[in-house]
Specification:
Low-confidence stretches: none
Radius of gyration: 21 Å
CATH architecture of the largest domain: 3-Layer(aba) Sandwich
Shape: elongated
Structural class: alpha/beta
CATH topology of the largest domain: Rossmann fold
Mean pLDDT: 85
Largest sheet: 7 strands, mixed
CATH superfamily of the largest domain: Vaccinia Virus protein VP39
Strand content: 15-25%
CATH class of the largest domain: Alpha Beta
Distance between the termini: 40 Å
Helix content: 40-55%
Order of helices and strands: HHEHHEEHHHHEHEHEEHEHHEE
């Protein structure tokens, strides 16, 4: 039998308008298959068949998380896509520029996706507003704050925290705990209700020591290299696109600075998605390692803490020096 030619497999996989639309959506972000079905206006089984064809042709790759399956461009990562996959992405970008009908469909798909995600974000914001007053109590249902804070302090004790950004500060607990070791603390949260609670908690700190900022963790309102330490404490699982959130964190972290993520290990508690607005059911070590690498962080220490039902993980990493244009990854 004549062996298959990768180019022919690629061209066959792309010979469908729906799959072309999927590839354009994946060019910018990882998506859940359910999201794709909503955007495309097709049934999930039908979209899954298209996804299988793209994955079999090594144009896309799946990642299962609980009952959800996420999809991204194959080989997307710190070393870039395979040459053929990269060529396909470039070809489709050129096609969108040259073909008004295709461009219009792609624009409509992106707008529909934006509307879907905006609705989910509104649901999340409503949840935060309703639960702001007892947020610390709600979080302690999974694991007590004490062991987590002690482990995080130990992992971050190697040097001064410098300019600290507490992303998703909530009631300001982490900002309060680490303020003595930081030169300055910026506590960021999207929810005004949370920031009001944080302001009350942190009012005993010197005015020049703490700043509270309302903002989105996917679009941080700070210049590049603004912070020496960036902390995500039980917040990354609310991210629809954690890779975009980590890219923003990398942008505002100075070279040599550190990032610390406290979150759940991968689990299958679907009720946290439906009842508590979690976008992600925790994270596997390999997934965090890939997110770090893609964003330009070098992993360092990590820790696992067993809670009542879920395992809480702590991951830390250091921001790599910025590469000059054209300089290859080491």
């Amino acid at each position: 039998m004549t062996p298959a030619i990768p180019l022919l497999d690629t061209l066959r996989a792309l010979a469908d308008s729906t799959r072309l639309r999927i590839m354009r959506l994946l060019d910018s972000m990882e998506l859940a298959v359910g999201e794709l079905a909503q955007v495309l206006g097709q049934s999930q089984p039908r979209v899954s068949r298209h996804v299988k064809i793209l994955c079999d042709a090594h144009l896309a790759e799946r990642r299962r998380e609980g009952a959800w399956v996420f999809l991204r461009t194959a080989g997307a990562g710190p070393r870039g896509m395979a040459p053929l996959t990269e060529a396909v992405a470039h070809l489709l970008a050129l096609a969108e520029q040259a073909d008004p009908a295709f461009a219009g469909q792609c624009a409509e798909d992106r707008a529909h996706l934006g509307a879907i995600r905006a609705a989910r974000q509104a649901h999340s914001q409503d949840y935060f507003a309703r639960h702001a007053a007892h947020w610390d109590e709600l979080r302690s249902l999974h694991i007590a704050d004490g062991p987590v804070e002690a482990a995080l302090a130990e992992l971050l004790s190697a040097s001064e925290l410098g300019r600290l950004l507490d992303v998703g500060t909530g009631t300001g607990r982490m900002a309060e705990v680490f303020a003595p070791q930081a030169a300055h603390v910026t506590a960021l949260d999207r929810s005004p209700d949370m920031l009001r609670l944080a302001r009350t908690r942190l009012q005993h700190l010197p005015a020049g020591k703490i700043e509270l900022v309302q903002g989105d963790f996917a679009q941080l309102p700070f210049p590049a290299a603004s912070f020496d330490t960036v902390l995500f404490h039980q917040v990354l699982h609310y991210a629809q696109a954690p890779e975009a959130v980590l890219a923003e964190a990398a942008r505002v972290t100075a070279p040599g600075g550190r990032i610390a993520i406290v979150d759940f290990a991968a689990h299958d508690r679907e009720d946290l998605r439906t009842q508590h607005a979690h976008a992600r059911l925790g994270f596997a070590d390999a997934q965090i390692a890939a997110l770090f690498a893609d964003a330009g962080f070098a992993p360092s220490a990590e820790r696992a803490l067993a809670g009542k039902e879920l395992i809480v993980k702590l991951w830390t990493a250091q921001r790599l020096p910025l590469r000059k244009q054209g300089q290859p990854l080491s």
